[in-house]
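Good morning C.,

I know you're traveling, so I'll keep this short. The sequence:
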Amino acid sequence: MGGRWIERWEPEDETFWREEGERIARRNLVFSVFSEHIGFSVWSLWSVMVLFMGPEYGIDPAGKFFLIATATLVGALIRVPYAFAVARFGGRNWTVAGALLLLPPTGLALVVTEPGTSYATFLLVAALTGVGGGNFASSMANINAFFPLRKKGWALGLNAGGGNLGVPVVQLVGLLVIGTAGAAHPRLVLGVYLPLAVAAAVCAALFMDNLAPVRNDTGAVREAVRDRHTWILALLYVGTFGSFIGYGFAFGLVLQTQFGRTPLQAASLTFLGPLLGSLLRPVGGFLADRYGGARITLWTFAAMAAATSVVVLASATGSLAVFLTGFTCLFVLSGLGNGSTYKMIPAVFLSQGRRRGLTGEDAEAYGRRLSGAAMGITGAVGGLGGLGINLAFRQSFATVGTGTAAFAAFLVFYAVCMGVTRAVYLRRPAVTVPETAAAAHPVPRAGRATV
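The C-alpha coordinates, ready to paste straight into the viewer:
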Protein backbone atom coordinates (compact mmCIF):
# COMPACT_ATOMS: atom_id res chain seq x y z
CA MET A 1 0.00 0.00 0.00
CA GLY A 2 2.90 2.38 -0.57
CA GLY A 3 1.87 4.01 -3.87
CA ARG A 4 -0.05 7.13 -4.90
CA TRP A 5 1.87 9.73 -2.89
CA ILE A 6 1.36 13.40 -3.81
CA GLU A 7 4.53 15.39 -3.04
CA ARG A 8 3.21 18.95 -3.55
CA TRP A 9 -0.06 20.07 -1.99
CA GLU A 10 -0.91 23.79 -1.66
CA PRO A 11 -4.70 24.17 -1.42
CA GLU A 12 -4.54 27.83 -0.37
CA ASP A 13 -2.82 28.65 -3.68
CA GLU A 14 -5.82 29.55 -5.85
CA THR A 15 -4.09 28.68 -9.12
CA PHE A 16 -3.02 25.25 -7.82
CA TRP A 17 -6.49 24.64 -6.42
CA ARG A 18 -8.26 25.59 -9.63
CA GLU A 19 -5.97 23.69 -12.00
CA GLU A 20 -5.56 20.39 -10.16
CA GLY A 21 -6.16 20.54 -6.42
CA GLU A 22 -9.95 20.71 -6.37
CA ARG A 23 -10.39 17.73 -8.69
CA ILE A 24 -8.08 15.54 -6.59
CA ALA A 25 -9.59 16.69 -3.29
CA ARG A 26 -13.16 15.98 -4.42
CA ARG A 27 -12.22 12.48 -5.61
CA ASN A 28 -10.63 11.68 -2.26
CA LEU A 29 -13.64 13.14 -0.46
CA VAL A 30 -16.06 10.81 -2.28
CA PHE A 31 -14.24 7.62 -1.30
CA SER A 32 -13.44 8.91 2.17
CA VAL A 33 -17.19 9.36 2.72
CA PHE A 34 -17.88 5.80 1.53
CA SER A 35 -15.34 4.22 3.88
CA GLU A 36 -16.36 6.36 6.84
CA HIS A 37 -20.02 5.56 6.16
CA ILE A 38 -19.36 1.81 6.45
CA GLY A 39 -17.29 2.46 9.58
CA PHE A 40 -20.17 4.30 11.23
CA SER A 41 -22.56 1.49 10.33
CA VAL A 42 -20.29 -1.10 11.95
CA TRP A 43 -19.85 1.13 15.01
CA SER A 44 -23.65 1.39 15.22
CA LEU A 45 -24.31 -2.34 14.79
CA TRP A 46 -25.21 -2.97 18.42
CA SER A 47 -27.84 -0.25 18.44
CA VAL A 48 -29.60 -2.57 15.94
CA MET A 49 -28.52 -5.93 17.36
CA VAL A 50 -30.13 -5.21 20.74
CA LEU A 51 -33.51 -4.84 18.99
CA PHE A 52 -33.23 -8.51 17.95
CA MET A 53 -32.35 -9.66 21.49
CA GLY A 54 -35.60 -10.86 23.02
CA PRO A 55 -36.16 -12.52 26.44
CA GLU A 56 -34.40 -15.69 25.26
CA TYR A 57 -31.07 -13.80 25.37
CA GLY A 58 -31.46 -13.14 29.12
CA ILE A 59 -30.22 -9.53 28.94
CA ASP A 60 -32.19 -6.77 30.70
CA PRO A 61 -32.49 -3.15 29.38
CA ALA A 62 -29.60 -1.92 31.55
CA GLY A 63 -27.38 -4.67 30.13
CA LYS A 64 -28.35 -3.71 26.57
CA PHE A 65 -27.55 -0.05 27.22
CA PHE A 66 -24.16 -1.14 28.54
CA LEU A 67 -23.45 -3.10 25.35
CA ILE A 68 -24.12 0.05 23.34
CA ALA A 69 -22.04 2.13 25.75
CA THR A 70 -19.10 -0.28 25.40
CA ALA A 71 -19.04 0.17 21.62
CA THR A 72 -19.33 3.93 22.08
CA LEU A 73 -16.43 4.04 24.55
CA VAL A 74 -14.00 2.12 22.37
CA GLY A 75 -15.03 4.09 19.29
CA ALA A 76 -14.31 7.34 21.10
CA LEU A 77 -10.95 6.35 22.58
CA ILE A 78 -9.61 4.83 19.37
CA ARG A 79 -10.16 8.11 17.54
CA VAL A 80 -6.94 9.55 18.94
CA PRO A 81 -4.52 7.03 17.36
CA TYR A 82 -6.65 6.91 14.20
CA ALA A 83 -6.39 10.69 13.78
CA PHE A 84 -2.58 10.54 13.82
CA ALA A 85 -2.37 7.38 11.71
CA VAL A 86 -3.12 9.42 8.57
CA ALA A 87 0.10 11.40 8.84
CA ARG A 88 2.08 8.30 9.80
CA PHE A 89 0.87 5.94 7.07
CA GLY A 90 -0.87 8.18 4.51
CA GLY A 91 -4.59 8.94 4.11
CA ARG A 92 -5.15 6.40 1.35
CA ASN A 93 -3.17 3.66 3.06
CA TRP A 94 -4.90 4.10 6.40
CA THR A 95 -8.34 4.24 4.79
CA VAL A 96 -7.63 0.83 3.25
CA ALA A 97 -6.42 -0.52 6.61
CA GLY A 98 -9.35 1.01 8.50
CA ALA A 99 -11.87 -0.61 6.16
CA LEU A 100 -10.23 -4.02 6.49
CA LEU A 101 -10.24 -3.70 10.29
CA LEU A 102 -14.04 -3.65 10.14
CA LEU A 103 -14.09 -7.29 9.05
CA PRO A 104 -13.13 -9.01 12.36
CA PRO A 105 -15.82 -7.41 14.57
CA THR A 106 -18.50 -7.88 11.91
CA GLY A 107 -17.52 -11.50 11.30
CA LEU A 108 -17.36 -12.29 15.02
CA ALA A 109 -20.78 -10.75 15.59
CA LEU A 110 -22.10 -12.95 12.78
CA VAL A 111 -20.79 -16.02 14.64
CA VAL A 112 -21.83 -15.25 18.24
CA THR A 113 -25.21 -13.51 17.91
CA GLU A 114 -27.57 -16.20 19.14
CA PRO A 115 -29.34 -17.10 22.41
CA GLY A 116 -27.05 -18.81 24.90
CA THR A 117 -23.95 -16.74 24.13
CA SER A 118 -22.46 -15.31 27.32
CA TYR A 119 -22.85 -11.63 28.11
CA ALA A 120 -19.06 -11.29 28.38
CA THR A 121 -18.72 -12.49 24.79
CA PHE A 122 -21.26 -9.95 23.62
CA LEU A 123 -19.36 -7.22 25.48
CA LEU A 124 -16.09 -8.21 23.81
CA VAL A 125 -17.57 -8.21 20.32
CA ALA A 126 -19.37 -4.92 20.95
CA ALA A 127 -16.06 -3.42 22.06
CA LEU A 128 -14.38 -4.55 18.84
CA THR A 129 -16.97 -2.73 16.72
CA GLY A 130 -15.54 0.48 18.18
CA VAL A 131 -12.92 0.44 15.41
CA GLY A 132 -15.67 1.77 13.14
CA GLY A 133 -15.80 4.93 15.25
CA GLY A 134 -12.09 5.46 14.71
CA ASN A 135 -12.62 5.78 10.96
CA PHE A 136 -14.30 9.13 11.54
CA ALA A 137 -11.18 10.68 13.08
CA SER A 138 -8.79 9.46 10.39
CA SER A 139 -11.20 10.49 7.63
CA MET A 140 -11.70 13.99 9.03
CA ALA A 141 -7.97 14.53 9.57
CA ASN A 142 -7.33 13.40 6.00
CA ILE A 143 -9.99 15.59 4.37
CA ASN A 144 -8.99 18.58 6.52
CA ALA A 145 -5.56 18.44 4.85
CA PHE A 146 -7.00 18.31 1.31
CA PHE A 147 -9.19 21.45 1.38
CA PRO A 148 -8.45 25.19 1.78
CA LEU A 149 -9.90 27.00 4.78
CA ARG A 150 -12.64 28.67 2.74
CA LYS A 151 -13.96 25.21 1.78
CA LYS A 152 -13.42 23.36 5.05
CA GLY A 153 -16.86 23.95 6.53
CA TRP A 154 -18.55 22.46 3.48
CA ALA A 155 -16.02 19.65 2.94
CA LEU A 156 -15.79 18.55 6.57
CA GLY A 157 -19.56 18.78 6.94
CA LEU A 158 -20.13 16.66 3.84
CA ASN A 159 -17.50 14.13 4.87
CA ALA A 160 -18.86 13.79 8.38
CA GLY A 161 -22.49 13.89 7.27
CA GLY A 162 -21.93 11.10 4.79
CA GLY A 163 -20.25 9.09 7.53
CA ASN A 164 -23.00 9.85 10.03
CA LEU A 165 -25.52 8.45 7.54
CA GLY A 166 -24.13 5.05 8.47
CA VAL A 167 -26.23 5.23 11.64
CA PRO A 168 -29.68 5.49 9.99
CA VAL A 169 -28.68 3.23 7.10
CA VAL A 170 -27.77 0.29 9.36
CA GLN A 171 -31.02 0.92 11.21
CA LEU A 172 -32.91 0.78 7.92
CA VAL A 173 -31.16 -2.49 7.11
CA GLY A 174 -32.26 -3.78 10.51
CA LEU A 175 -35.84 -2.64 9.81
CA LEU A 176 -35.80 -4.43 6.45
CA VAL A 177 -34.58 -7.66 8.06
CA ILE A 178 -37.08 -7.54 10.93
CA GLY A 179 -39.92 -6.64 8.57
CA THR A 180 -39.19 -9.46 6.11
CA ALA A 181 -37.33 -12.27 7.88
CA GLY A 182 -38.35 -11.49 11.46
CA ALA A 183 -36.50 -10.67 14.68
CA ALA A 184 -34.90 -14.13 14.83
CA HIS A 185 -32.44 -13.41 11.99
CA PRO A 186 -29.93 -10.71 13.10
CA ARG A 187 -27.14 -12.39 11.10
CA LEU A 188 -28.68 -11.09 7.88
CA VAL A 189 -27.78 -7.53 8.93
CA LEU A 190 -24.19 -8.51 9.56
CA GLY A 191 -23.96 -10.35 6.25
CA VAL A 192 -24.65 -7.09 4.41
CA TYR A 193 -21.62 -5.30 5.85
CA LEU A 194 -18.87 -7.84 5.29
CA PRO A 195 -18.75 -7.32 1.50
CA LEU A 196 -19.29 -3.57 1.91
CA ALA A 197 -16.17 -3.30 4.11
CA VAL A 198 -14.17 -5.12 1.43
CA ALA A 199 -15.59 -2.78 -1.24
CA ALA A 200 -14.56 0.27 0.81
CA ALA A 201 -10.99 -1.03 1.09
CA VAL A 202 -10.76 -1.76 -2.63
CA CYS A 203 -12.14 1.66 -3.63
CA ALA A 204 -9.73 3.46 -1.30
CA ALA A 205 -6.79 1.52 -2.73
CA LEU A 206 -7.80 2.35 -6.31
CA PHE A 207 -8.99 5.94 -6.09
CA MET A 208 -7.50 7.73 -3.06
CA ASP A 209 -4.14 9.44 -2.51
CA ASN A 210 -1.58 10.01 0.24
CA LEU A 211 -0.33 13.55 0.91
CA ALA A 212 3.43 13.60 1.49
CA PRO A 213 3.40 17.12 3.09
CA VAL A 214 1.14 15.84 5.90
CA ARG A 215 3.32 14.58 8.72
CA ASN A 216 2.73 14.01 12.42
CA ASP A 217 4.03 16.80 14.57
CA THR A 218 4.38 15.80 18.22
CA GLY A 219 5.04 19.43 19.07
CA ALA A 220 1.67 20.36 17.57
CA VAL A 221 -0.04 17.70 19.66
CA ARG A 222 1.56 19.07 22.82
CA GLU A 223 0.57 22.61 21.88
CA ALA A 224 -3.00 21.55 21.11
CA VAL A 225 -3.26 19.71 24.44
CA ARG A 226 -2.06 22.81 26.29
CA ASP A 227 -4.31 25.21 24.40
CA ARG A 228 -7.55 25.88 26.25
CA HIS A 229 -9.49 26.23 23.00
CA THR A 230 -8.91 22.57 22.22
CA TRP A 231 -10.79 21.60 25.35
CA ILE A 232 -13.47 24.27 25.01
CA LEU A 233 -14.22 23.09 21.48
CA ALA A 234 -14.16 19.49 22.70
CA LEU A 235 -16.80 20.38 25.30
CA LEU A 236 -19.01 21.92 22.62
CA TYR A 237 -18.51 18.87 20.42
CA VAL A 238 -19.65 16.65 23.30
CA GLY A 239 -22.92 18.59 23.18
CA THR A 240 -23.38 18.23 19.43
CA PHE A 241 -21.76 15.03 18.18
CA GLY A 242 -22.02 13.32 21.57
CA SER A 243 -25.75 13.94 21.44
CA PHE A 244 -26.06 12.69 17.87
CA ILE A 245 -24.20 9.42 18.38
CA GLY A 246 -25.56 8.81 21.89
CA TYR A 247 -29.17 9.35 20.84
CA GLY A 248 -28.63 7.43 17.60
CA PHE A 249 -27.40 4.39 19.49
CA ALA A 250 -30.02 4.54 22.25
CA PHE A 251 -33.19 5.70 20.49
CA GLY A 252 -34.58 2.29 19.52
CA LEU A 253 -33.90 0.80 22.92
CA VAL A 254 -35.59 3.75 24.66
CA LEU A 255 -38.67 3.20 22.50
CA GLN A 256 -38.72 -0.50 23.35
CA THR A 257 -38.09 -0.04 27.06
CA GLN A 258 -40.08 3.08 27.94
CA PHE A 259 -42.88 3.00 25.37
CA GLY A 260 -43.27 -0.77 24.91
CA ARG A 261 -42.63 -0.80 21.16
CA THR A 262 -41.99 -4.12 19.44
CA PRO A 263 -38.67 -4.62 17.58
CA LEU A 264 -40.38 -3.86 14.26
CA GLN A 265 -42.13 -0.77 15.63
CA ALA A 266 -38.91 0.53 17.22
CA ALA A 267 -36.85 -0.11 14.09
CA SER A 268 -39.44 1.66 11.93
CA LEU A 269 -39.10 4.83 14.03
CA THR A 270 -35.40 5.00 14.84
CA PHE A 271 -33.86 5.81 11.47
CA LEU A 272 -35.59 9.12 10.65
CA GLY A 273 -33.88 11.27 13.30
CA PRO A 274 -30.31 10.11 12.56
CA LEU A 275 -31.05 10.40 8.83
CA LEU A 276 -32.11 14.04 9.12
CA GLY A 277 -29.24 14.87 11.46
CA SER A 278 -26.72 13.34 9.06
CA LEU A 279 -28.13 15.15 6.03
CA LEU A 280 -28.09 18.50 7.82
CA ARG A 281 -24.50 18.29 9.07
CA PRO A 282 -23.15 19.79 5.81
CA VAL A 283 -25.79 22.53 6.16
CA GLY A 284 -24.36 23.36 9.57
CA GLY A 285 -20.91 23.67 8.01
CA PHE A 286 -22.28 25.84 5.20
CA LEU A 287 -24.11 28.14 7.63
CA ALA A 288 -20.93 28.39 9.72
CA ASP A 289 -18.97 29.39 6.60
CA ARG A 290 -21.54 32.09 5.89
CA TYR A 291 -22.61 33.42 9.29
CA GLY A 292 -19.94 32.26 11.75
CA GLY A 293 -19.56 28.95 13.52
CA ALA A 294 -20.03 30.35 17.02
CA ARG A 295 -23.31 32.06 16.16
CA ILE A 296 -24.77 28.93 14.59
CA THR A 297 -23.51 26.79 17.48
CA LEU A 298 -25.00 29.11 20.10
CA TRP A 299 -28.44 29.12 18.51
CA THR A 300 -28.23 25.37 17.99
CA PHE A 301 -27.67 24.77 21.70
CA ALA A 302 -30.54 27.12 22.56
CA ALA A 303 -32.84 25.17 20.26
CA MET A 304 -31.55 21.84 21.63
CA ALA A 305 -32.41 22.99 25.15
CA ALA A 306 -35.94 23.87 24.00
CA ALA A 307 -36.36 20.50 22.24
CA THR A 308 -35.07 18.67 25.32
CA SER A 309 -37.67 20.46 27.45
CA VAL A 310 -40.33 19.05 25.13
CA VAL A 311 -38.82 15.56 25.44
CA VAL A 312 -38.74 15.79 29.26
CA LEU A 313 -42.44 16.72 29.26
CA ALA A 314 -43.30 13.90 26.84
CA SER A 315 -41.26 11.38 28.82
CA ALA A 316 -42.94 12.36 32.07
CA THR A 317 -46.45 12.20 30.58
CA GLY A 318 -45.90 9.15 28.36
CA SER A 319 -46.85 10.92 25.12
CA LEU A 320 -45.17 9.01 22.30
CA ALA A 321 -46.13 11.49 19.56
CA VAL A 322 -44.67 14.48 21.41
CA PHE A 323 -41.63 12.43 22.39
CA LEU A 324 -40.92 11.51 18.77
CA THR A 325 -41.33 15.12 17.67
CA GLY A 326 -38.93 16.45 20.28
CA PHE A 327 -36.40 13.67 19.76
CA THR A 328 -36.40 14.17 15.98
CA CYS A 329 -35.75 17.88 16.53
CA LEU A 330 -32.77 16.96 18.72
CA PHE A 331 -31.29 14.89 15.91
CA VAL A 332 -31.77 17.70 13.38
CA LEU A 333 -30.20 20.27 15.68
CA SER A 334 -27.29 18.06 16.71
CA GLY A 335 -26.53 17.53 13.01
CA LEU A 336 -26.44 21.27 12.38
CA GLY A 337 -24.30 21.79 15.48
CA ASN A 338 -21.86 19.07 14.43
CA GLY A 339 -21.11 20.97 11.23
CA SER A 340 -20.83 24.40 12.82
CA THR A 341 -18.69 23.26 15.77
CA TYR A 342 -16.22 21.33 13.62
CA LYS A 343 -15.87 24.32 11.31
CA MET A 344 -14.79 26.38 14.33
CA ILE A 345 -11.66 24.26 14.90
CA PRO A 346 -9.54 25.35 11.90
CA ALA A 347 -10.89 28.89 12.16
CA VAL A 348 -9.94 29.23 15.83
CA PHE A 349 -6.37 28.08 15.28
CA LEU A 350 -5.90 30.24 12.19
CA SER A 351 -6.91 33.19 14.35
CA GLN A 352 -4.48 32.07 17.02
CA GLY A 353 -1.70 32.22 14.45
CA ARG A 354 -2.67 35.74 13.39
CA ARG A 355 -2.82 36.89 16.99
CA ARG A 356 0.78 35.70 17.31
CA GLY A 357 1.69 38.11 14.52
CA LEU A 358 1.83 35.54 11.71
CA THR A 359 0.48 36.44 8.27
CA GLY A 360 -0.26 34.74 4.96
CA GLU A 361 1.00 31.19 4.51
CA ASP A 362 2.74 31.22 7.91
CA ALA A 363 -0.57 31.82 9.69
CA GLU A 364 -2.33 29.22 7.52
CA ALA A 365 0.40 26.64 8.18
CA TYR A 366 0.14 27.28 11.91
CA GLY A 367 -3.64 26.88 11.75
CA ARG A 368 -3.43 23.59 9.79
CA ARG A 369 -0.75 22.28 12.14
CA LEU A 370 -2.69 22.81 15.36
CA SER A 371 -6.19 22.19 14.01
CA GLY A 372 -5.14 18.77 12.69
CA ALA A 373 -3.91 17.81 16.16
CA ALA A 374 -6.93 19.34 17.88
CA MET A 375 -9.37 17.45 15.65
CA GLY A 376 -8.17 14.10 16.96
CA ILE A 377 -8.64 15.22 20.55
CA THR A 378 -11.97 16.92 19.91
CA GLY A 379 -13.35 13.94 18.00
CA ALA A 380 -12.39 11.53 20.77
CA VAL A 381 -13.89 13.67 23.54
CA GLY A 382 -17.03 14.23 21.46
CA GLY A 383 -17.43 10.48 21.07
CA LEU A 384 -17.21 10.13 24.85
CA GLY A 385 -20.29 12.32 25.01
CA GLY A 386 -22.18 9.45 23.38
CA LEU A 387 -20.88 7.17 26.12
CA GLY A 388 -22.15 9.61 28.74
CA ILE A 389 -25.62 9.64 27.18
CA ASN A 390 -25.88 5.86 27.11
CA LEU A 391 -24.62 5.53 30.68
CA ALA A 392 -27.09 8.21 31.78
CA PHE A 393 -29.93 6.27 30.15
CA ARG A 394 -28.71 3.04 31.76
CA GLN A 395 -28.70 4.65 35.21
CA SER A 396 -32.03 6.39 34.71
CA PHE A 397 -33.82 3.23 33.59
CA ALA A 398 -32.14 1.16 36.32
CA THR A 399 -33.26 3.52 39.09
CA VAL A 400 -36.60 5.05 38.04
CA GLY A 401 -37.63 2.98 35.02
CA THR A 402 -37.78 5.88 32.53
CA GLY A 403 -35.36 8.20 30.74
CA THR A 404 -36.82 11.41 32.19
CA ALA A 405 -33.99 12.02 34.67
CA ALA A 406 -31.39 11.54 31.93
CA PHE A 407 -33.10 14.09 29.69
CA ALA A 408 -33.21 16.60 32.55
CA ALA A 409 -29.44 16.23 32.94
CA PHE A 410 -28.94 16.76 29.19
CA LEU A 411 -31.00 19.97 29.40
CA VAL A 412 -28.65 21.39 32.03
CA PHE A 413 -25.62 20.47 29.93
CA TYR A 414 -26.96 22.26 26.84
CA ALA A 415 -27.46 25.39 28.94
CA VAL A 416 -23.82 25.16 30.04
CA CYS A 417 -22.69 24.84 26.40
CA MET A 418 -24.71 27.92 25.48
CA GLY A 419 -23.01 29.92 28.20
CA VAL A 420 -19.54 28.76 27.23
CA THR A 421 -20.05 29.50 23.53
CA ARG A 422 -21.26 33.01 24.22
CA ALA A 423 -18.65 33.83 26.85
CA VAL A 424 -15.62 32.58 24.90
CA TYR A 425 -16.46 33.17 21.24
CA LEU A 426 -19.21 35.80 21.06
CA ARG A 427 -18.68 38.09 24.04
CA ARG A 428 -15.05 38.24 25.11
CA PRO A 429 -12.32 39.39 22.68
CA ALA A 430 -10.27 36.26 23.43
CA VAL A 431 -10.28 35.05 19.85
CA THR A 432 -11.41 36.75 16.65
CA VAL A 433 -11.65 34.35 13.75
CA PRO A 434 -12.12 34.98 10.03
CA GLU A 435 -14.55 32.76 8.19
CA THR A 436 -12.33 32.21 5.15
CA ALA A 437 -8.70 32.60 4.34
CA ALA A 438 -9.50 35.66 2.25
CA ALA A 439 -11.67 37.31 4.86
CA ALA A 440 -9.00 38.72 7.11
CA HIS A 441 -5.54 39.38 5.76
CA PRO A 442 -4.78 41.92 8.50
CA VAL A 443 -4.74 40.88 12.14
CA PRO A 444 -8.28 41.59 13.40
CA ARG A 445 -8.88 44.30 15.95
CA ALA A 446 -9.97 43.31 19.42
CA GLY A 447 -13.70 43.19 19.73
CA ARG A 448 -16.49 40.71 19.72
CA ALA A 449 -15.27 37.33 18.59
CA THR A 450 -16.46 35.89 15.30
CA VAL A 451 -15.86 32.19 14.89
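Safe travels,
E.
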